[in-house]
Amino acid sequence: MDTKRLLILGTSSDAGKSSIVTAVCKIMSRDYKTAPFKAQNMSLNSWVNPDGKEISYAQVIQAWAAGADPIPEMNPVVLKPKGDSFSQVIVLGEHYADRSAGNYYESIDEMSAILDGALSKLDEKYDVVVMEGAGGAAEINLYDRDIVNVGTARITNAPIIIVGDIERGGVFASLYGTYMLLPEDIQKNIKGFIINKFRGDPEILRPGLKQLEEMTGVPVLGIMPYFRLRIPSEDSMSFREKEGAGTVPDEKKNSNNSVEIAVIQFPKISHFNDYEILESQARVKYIDIYDSLGAPDLIILPGSGTPLKDLEALRESGMADQILSKAGSVPIIGIGEGYQMLGAKLTGPDGKIIDGLGLLDIETVYEKEEGYSEKPVRVSSKAKGCTPYLKAIWGETVDGFNVYSGKVTTKSPVFENDGACSADGLVLGTSMHGFFDNKNLRVALLKYLAEKKGVPYVEEDGFTIQDGFEELAQVFEKNVDVEAIYKIMGLK
Known about the structure:
Blueprint: E1 4-10, H1 17-28, E2 34-37, E3 40-42, E4 46-48, E5 54-56, H2 57-66, E6 77-81, E7 86-91, E8 94-100, H3 101-106, H4 108-125, E9 128-132, H5 150-156, E10 160-165, H6 171-181, H7 184-187, E11 190-198, H8 206-216, E12 220-225, H9 236-240, E13 260-265, E14 269-270, E15 283-288, E16 298-301, E17 303-304, H10 307-317, H11 319-326, E18 332-335, H12 337-341, E19 345-347, E20 353-355, E21 362-365, E22 377-382, H13 388-391, E23 397-402, E24 407-410, E25 420-421, E26 427-430, E27 432-433, H14 439-453, H15 465-479, H16 482-488
Parallel strand pairs: 1-9, 1-10, 2-9, 3-6, 10-11, 11-12, 13-15, 13-16, 16-18, 18-26, 19-21
Antiparallel strand pairs: 4-5, 6-7, 7-8, 14-17, 19-20, 21-24, 22-23, 23-27, 25-26
Helix pairs in contact: 1-2, 1-15, 6-8
């Protein structure tokens, strides 16, 4: 069969496009070989496949939901912000260039050709491609250079569903306004609306749904209720707007909930999905650098897209002093650039030396401009004992990936050739992202924290990411006309 495509556009950022695509990928993969696609994603939350190709984590999640191996053609262009108007451009999984916003738009024809080629490759392998737009689709100032909404719509001529977020208010105006502002050649392909994140009785909306359908001739295919997604956050908006500051739901009733983990929320936090897996076993709080650290049982310094600037912000906000006041009594873990900040010194590409937090005997040198990273690599190392929880898994394998943004010198690595540890064993750092995805390490750490706090450790409940996909798919099928979507795409 010829490959069938569907394009999910949104009225705004965080309208829920990613979760809708994830649900559709899961459902359609039961009948067809299905793949996700997003022409361009701006994100510091990337993932590295076994071939060392870097793509946005959002499309990785969608690929896993579809039962497909994530490949760079699913997200041919990734923009990794390095400042307010400057980004590292990743094309088909490889570093391509560093560009300002203006310079990037000058290469838009080249980017369009790349996404066209990526779609052609997906067409060779898959029966269905579920595509996602970015931000709000009706950005009329960007129509001449928008490859991800208008550009994808024109290249593919695919049927379109528009998603509106009712949490933001004005959902009817945003759906109607988006419909009316899109160019006529794209407007004709809009086949349905979905209202997302609704709380309450859907009957209240019925009169408005009828009027919207009469005004546009486009049916409302469903109303998705607000509910807690139990899959990893796919982008920075969904991460930063976590309900309950990232704490686990009360219904989990896991005694480990009394263990509190503080993740420091840098201004340019990256790879934030590294810590979400801990949420099912502990109270994970994402702490803004201007807030009180409180009394956590573990402090995590995450990755950063701009480590030197974020280290400076850490000091100016007073968060650095809060962290240092806990050293020696509270375990601290640094991942990626957070690991580098824990060291003695960081040297910028201009030769300027900045003092780190001084909790680890390491030094980092950035040979290129801040935010630049070498080609990412998958890694597999054996753990060495230096902290109580690492001693429990001595010699066992720990897997992850490294996105090197600076050269780190360490005297006593804890994962063969990576990482460092303090003399008292309370401070640990590693370049390895995906660190907590290792169940052996995660269990050892949580057991240690529970024991240190004097509470019993309870085994994980066995809920998997695939269970999360199935849960999302069931909610979608209950509230959205899936049969209509199949018909829109010309599928049985």
